[in-house]
Amino acid sequence: MFNSFDDLADQQLAGGVLTRDDALAILRSPDEALLSLVAAGGRLRRAAFGNTVKVNYLVNLKSGLCPEDCGYCSQRLGSTSDILKYSWLSEQETADQAAVGIKAGASRVCLVASGRGPSNRDIDRVSGMVDELKSQHPAVEVCVCLGLLKEGQAERLRDAGADAYNHNLNTAESRYEDICSTHTFDDRVDTVDKAQQAGLSACSGLIVGMGESDEELVDAMFALRDLGGDSIPVNFLMPFEGTPLEGTWELDPRRCIRILALARFACPTTEVRMSGGREMHLRTLQPLGLHLANSLFLGDYLTSEGQEATADLDLIKDSGFTVLGAGDDADPSNEERRDEVILRQRGAGTTSPANA
User: Fold this and answer.
1) Residue 308 belongs to domain with CATH number
2) How far apart are CA 293 and CA 35, in angstroms?
């Protein structure tokens, strides 16, 4: 067992591998040690990523009506959550929405569609969107998230110009069937493997606050470490009405900080992203979170509203960080145009938070 979090950071900087006992010690550390934990984790974050924050922008290509029964999701089979439901955006609508996030400083656009997994026709459709985005913004990374992949589909997305594929493990293998019955933990691992074998950067994370124990949380984090993905999005459960997990409130800001610290110490050189639910659960500790995570989503998520894009950019600046790849054309005051595009393309309606 380490003597201090600084000692543990030294160990990780020297190429050490986080043990289960050390991981549990992070999650169970007392409140009076929280700032020491963040300071030590911040050393790892800065060693790998310097003073930058990677800004990601999400475009929801198709919303609702999913046949899967993931208990955390407002788009699940049988959900009564009040969300917008719509079919595929067009290439132009996708490009317009992506352009808003890019203009505000995003260096990665995430194209997401609900469903179990894409048909080959869906792959053709999304490939066209990727090609269009890349032709207009060649320096911007494009990440695709379409669910479970079939043989050959990852290669087709790669050939269209996609840089990454997102598919989260979400929770520990030992409790996956408590969260979802329509597919398995192994199905998710298989899709991440397919993406990696095709040469796509793997983006795979988890959702915390779903009733998992400390041990299960460590299991999930170590499974992500074993996958060797390039980025880990950490989502914080938003337990809204109409899902089986409504009323599940297990997180507080300090717990969320410890979870981000666990991700950083377990995977010191991996991109760690503060994702869905950060505004709700980290609350005023979001600036501390940036000393552990080096990535966030700008603005809204799938069926949920995030904080204003200008507030996200102020959060980065006020915390002493800079936006990765920000140039003179980044416009932090672009919130009005972003809202205009979203309303025009999706149609005015009521959104209800769900997990990204």
Assistant:
1) 3.20.20.70
2) 15
pLDDT band at 189 (very low <50, low <70, confident <90, very high): very high
Q: Are 261 and 41 in contact (CB under 8 A)?
A: yes
| 10 contacts: CB under 8 Å, gap ≥ 6 | none
- The secondary structure element, H or E, covering residue 189 is helix 185-197
Is 223 part of any domain?
A: yes
The reply, when asked if residue 273 is annotated as ligand binding, is yes
In this structure, what token pair is assigned to residue 335? 């919130």
How sure is the predictor about 79, in pLDDT bands with cuts at 50, 70 and 90? Answer: low
| 110 belongs to an annotated ligand binding site | yes
Query: Can you give the pLDDT at residue 78?
Result: 64
Q: Which domain holds residue 197?
A: 16-346
Distance of alpha carbon 169 from alpha carbon 194, whole angstroms: 14
pTM exceeds 0.85 for this model: yes
Domain for residue 7, yes or no?
Answer: no
Say whether 267 counts as a known binding-site residue.
no
Please state, in angstroms and as integers, the Cα–Cα distance from residue 88 to each residue in 60, 93, 170, 177, following that order: 9, 10, 25, 30
Q: Which tens digit of pLDDT belongs to each residue from 293-332?
A: 999 998 765 555 667 888 999 999 999 999 998 754 444 4
112 three-class SS = strand
**Is the distance from CB of 342 to CB of 63 less than 8 angstroms?**
no
Nearest to 278 by CA among 208, 215, 219, 216: 208
pLDDT digits (tens, 9 = 90+) for 95-133: 999 999 999 899 999 999 989 999 999 999 999 999 999
66 is in an annotated binding site: yes
Residue-level pLDDT at 42? 98
Number of domain units in the chain: 1
Residue 9 lies in a domain: no
Residue 231: in which H helix or E strand, if any? strand 231-236
Q: Is 256 annotated as a binding residue?
A: no
